[in-house]
Amino acid sequence: MAHAIEAAGLTKKYPGDVRALDGLSITVGQGEILGLLGPNGAGKSTTVKILTTLIRPDAGTAAVAGHDVLRRPDRVRRVIGVVSQKSGADPEASGRDNLVLQGRLYGMGGAQVRRRAAELLARFGLEDAAARKVKTYSGGMQRRLDVALGLVHRPEVLFLDEPTTGLDPEARASMWAEIARLAGDDALAILLTTHYLDEADRLARRVAIVDRGRVVAEGTPDGLKGELRGDAVHVQWQEAPPEAPVREALDRLPGVREVVLDGTRLSTRADDGAAAVPAVLAALDQAGVPAAAATVARPSLDDVYLRYAGRRFAQADGADAAGPAEPATAGGAR
Ligand SMILES: Nc1ncnc2c1ncn2[C@@H]1O[C@H](COP(=O)(O)OP(=O)(O)OP(=O)(O)O)[C@@H](O)[C@H]1O
């Protein structure tokens, strides 16, 4: 089997002429986490629905664990685990009963299913809460149970649709560790959809950036960031400056390129960010548009997204999904 997941040229239109997928292609190998990264509405959930046989594409092909999703959906369903955005657990039942019921749905018998439930409760740190109703669980515990439910029947391929949305930092970190173990120790192929750039950066061996229904960039997080030459320089104003003098000032500076002005914030790239900051600030001062602060950062996935999608991730997402930038050198803040 070449790949655990192989999708090529997927297209999908919804009523109202919404083109959710526009020729999307991805592959995921065994033991690999592919991060499908994109803002709200990019087409991530539609991709997962097609690969998990919930909906059919208008065109394109897809196979999961070697089974064609259109011709053998029954086989696909037996080898996949799906953890969707909305919890599938019964809040009125205990964690253990939820796991046992799920196992029975997959045809697992008495002792076997109880053993598997106990194993998963231990693995996900839910032993003490095993007999409690799920509605009394914290958000992090519920999410861990959701992942355990997706694993009861020992799938080969796991789909995790935004697994950490709404979790606090501690619960996110423990979920990340568990997901990494699933790909590492258990050699599961994992398709992880997320709109958190830092999550993709941290977890995924490869990232596919999806914008408007297609993959616009693909590679390892470090590889994608490494393709962006030089440093990212971010400039901040108290109030949005007029665009023309800002652009004219920066156009004249050698080594400064790819200027994107977005309200009070400007992003640009420079071969040597630390050296460029004083020149950038001086040029803006001279042009009558003095900035409040400037910082230098190593390129982030947000910068990668900006390069390929032509807009900032958070701007497309309508939320601060990018997380804080990681400053490598503090520039001339003032
Ligand atoms: N059943 C549907 N009917 C009509 N339009 C739909 C339907 N489902 C999704 N869409 C639209 O298709 C596009 C892609 O949606 P999709 O849910 O795949 O995006 P997403 O990347 O998963 O976003 P999110 O992060 O919000 O889940 C969006 O414009 C969405 O509004």
Automatic annotation (TrEMBL):
<keyword id="KW-0472">Membrane</keyword>
<dbReference type="Pfam" id="PF00005">
    <property type="entry name" value="ABC_tran"/>
</dbReference>
<keyword id="KW-0547">Nucleotide-binding</keyword>
<feature type="domain" description="ABC transporter">
    <location>
        <begin position="5"/>
        <end position="237"/>
    </location>
</feature>
<comment type="similarity">
    <text>Belongs to the ABC transporter superfamily. Drug exporter-1 (DrugE1) (TC 3.A.1.105) family.</text>
</comment>
<dbReference type="InterPro" id="IPR027417">
    <property type="entry name" value="P-loop_NTPase"/>
</dbReference>
<dbReference type="InterPro" id="IPR017871">
    <property type="entry name" value="ABC_transporter-like_CS"/>
</dbReference>
<dbReference type="GO" id="GO:0046677">
    <property type="term" value="P:response to antibiotic"/>
</dbReference>
<dbReference type="GO" id="GO:0016887">
    <property type="term" value="F:ATP hydrolysis activity"/>
</dbReference>
<dbReference type="InterPro" id="IPR050763">
    <property type="entry name" value="ABC_transporter_ATP-binding"/>
</dbReference>
<keyword id="KW-0067">ATP-binding</keyword>
<keyword id="KW-0046">Antibiotic resistance</keyword>
<protein>
    <submittedName>
        <fullName>ATP-binding cassette domain-containing protein</fullName>
    </submittedName>
</protein>
<dbReference type="GO" id="GO:0005886">
    <property type="term" value="C:plasma membrane"/>
</dbReference>
<keyword id="KW-1278">Translocase</keyword>
<dbReference type="InterPro" id="IPR003439">
    <property type="entry name" value="ABC_transporter-like_ATP-bd"/>
</dbReference>
<dbReference type="GO" id="GO:0043215">
    <property type="term" value="P:daunorubicin transport"/>
</dbReference>
<dbReference type="GO" id="GO:1900753">
    <property type="term" value="P:doxorubicin transport"/>
</dbReference>
<dbReference type="GO" id="GO:0005524">
    <property type="term" value="F:ATP binding"/>
</dbReference>
<keyword id="KW-1003">Cell membrane</keyword>
<keyword id="KW-0813">Transport</keyword>
<dbReference type="InterPro" id="IPR025302">
    <property type="entry name" value="DrrA1/2-like_C"/>
</dbReference>
<dbReference type="InterPro" id="IPR003593">
    <property type="entry name" value="AAA+_ATPase"/>
</dbReference>
<dbReference type="Pfam" id="PF13732">
    <property type="entry name" value="DrrA1-3_C"/>
</dbReference>
<dbReference type="InterPro" id="IPR005894">
    <property type="entry name" value="DrrA"/>
</dbReference>
